[in-house]
Amino acid sequence: MATATRAPAVAAAAVRALAGPTARSSSRLAGRGAVTTRADVARELAPLPVATLVAAATTASSTAAAADLWRAVGLAGARDDGQRAAAAAALVDALAQAGPSYQLRYRLFAAVTPLVDGAALRTVAAAIARLPDSPPGHALARVATRGLARNPAPAARLTLAGLVGAADAGTRLDAIRGLALPAAGGPPAATAAPMVTGDVSDAVDRALVTALGGDAWPVIRQQAAAALGLRCQRPGPQAALDRAIDADAHVPVRVEAVAARAQCETPDLDRRLWALIDGQAPLPVRDRALAAQADRPGTAAPLVTRFSRWRGQAFSDDEALRLAIRAATALGQRGATEAGPALLAAARDTAFPELAAAAVQALGALGSACPRDAPALLARYAVGDDQALALAAKGALARCR
């Protein structure tokens, strides 16, 4: 085929020119060329009627051609609500008859999972469950899981929740990522029995809480924490995040749980964050809590107090130094006028150049609230030998007046 060896842009243009309104031309284009060219073929054929594409797929001269045509059927169903049900039904039948071909089944799972609902979805879910515990089976489960994440049917969310417990870690991760996305729009392929939204939410909560509390893979627990941050007004997710913050063995999971918990606007949130900041948790956990708390109202005064304390502890406590630097940056970003004297004192103290530079930048960020004595100090630093401090001072001078 001419498009097989051409540059992608040229190949795509050739596909658009050749894709005609008949099944015959569809068959001639499908199944040949590079992967990207074949994807272009499917996209260009998608505007054809589903019935035309199905007829071409079922009579295709090769498995590769059939795979591309079934991909086009899925795209056609997704782009045209009036053809969605017909496309889903044809794809479910094709999946049942697909045989062992990995390429064909991969395309069928990718095409059918965004479309199905009701009995068809149950059939597809059963096919996913029967996939072997092997690399090819895992790859098929993953592409099916990613397709379900684009399916607007509530039952698809339930199916994703079930896949959070899959044997393959990649499938579990894709399922959690799918549940973290907002439900897709558009009508499902068929109308299933009415489903209570609360039932779906409860099932998703349980799946994510179980993953956060017990999955062996830290990256999956991290992803579960991030997903629960979008649901943390509910008691179950909130409690699960609190447990992870306090007890997870992997620090990045605890950090992600802090970020998620900070999205829950609950009466005890300020107390919870300050307790983490002042506690004995690992520095990344305390630092993430400080970053979350720094954006909250009423934070400036208590943060100034802690900034001064951490600065005093910096000679013997490296974590205090790190927190003081973070606090200086946060106070500047907030434009906290009351922080001016403390920031100026820190800027004058070059025993910790990194902290002094952060304080200088924060002074500049105060703008018109910059202390009266600050410009002279900044001007001196701007021509000094410490390059980092000089660079920070030059930037601050432009704003500190």
Give your account of this protein's structure.
The structure is a single chain. The chain has 401 residues and is mainly alpha-helical. The chain is 69% helix and 0% strand. Helix 2 (23-29) crosses helix 4 (50-58) and helix 11 runs parallel beside helix 13 (218-228). The longest helix is centred in the middle third of the chain and has 18 residues, at 197-214. The chain is elongated and about 85 Å long.
Quick structural overview:
It contains 23 helices and no strands.
Describe how the helices and strands are arranged:
Elements (H helix, E strand, L loop, with lengths): L7 H11 L4 H7 L5 H11 L4 H9 L4 H17 L1 H16 L5 H11 L5 H12 L5 H14 L5 H10 L5 H12 L16 H18 L3 H11 L6 H13 L3 H11 L7 H10 L4 H12 L5 H14 L4 H17 L5 H9 L4 H13 L8 H9 L4 H11 L4
Q: Which labels suit this protein?
A:
single chain; 401 residues; mainly alpha; 23 helices; elongated; disordered N terminus
Low-confidence stretches: 1-8, 10-20, 185-196
- Most strands sheet: none
Query: What is the beta-strand fraction?
Result: under 5%
Oligomer kind = single chain
Structural class: mainly alpha
The helical percent reads 55-70%
Radius of gyration: 29 Å
| Strand segment tally | 0
Number of helices: 23
SSE run: HHHHHHHHHHHHHHHHHHHHHHH
Mean pLDDT: 88
- N-to-C terminal Cα separation, in Å? 69 Å
Q: Based on CA inertia axes, which overall geometry fits?
A: elongated
